[in-house]
Amino acid sequence: MWIVMEKVHGGELFSYLQKTVLSEADMVEIMRQLIEGIGYLHECGVIHRDLKPENILIETFEDDTFCIKITDFGLSRLCTPAEAIFDCCGTPAYVAPEVLHKTGYHC
Fold first, then answer.
1. Catalytically annotated residue among 50, 64, 72, 87
2. CB-count burial class (<10 Å; 0-12, 13-18, 19+) for 48
3. Which member of 11, 14, 58, 70 lies 3.0 to 4.6 Å from 53 by CB, making a disulfide possible if both were Cys?
């Protein structure tokens, strides 16, 4: 069995931001692409459940433009709009405080 994947030259967004200072306009563009991508996933009934900078790749181009790619769908699942999900999952450092409080998770 072979798995063929695209090489993303910028790497993880987390690592990229540690070595690169982005302008406000670039950060707005990253967020626009991220929101558009998550919106598309939700339209398809997919919820990611582990969104964090380590699971976002950034493809950089020679003309200083970039494209983000959402990765690591290991915790994702299909969900209908009327369905309520109560599973506790994801990376605690990136989970909203109210979710941690509701589940009784303690650091």
1. 50
2. buried
3. 14
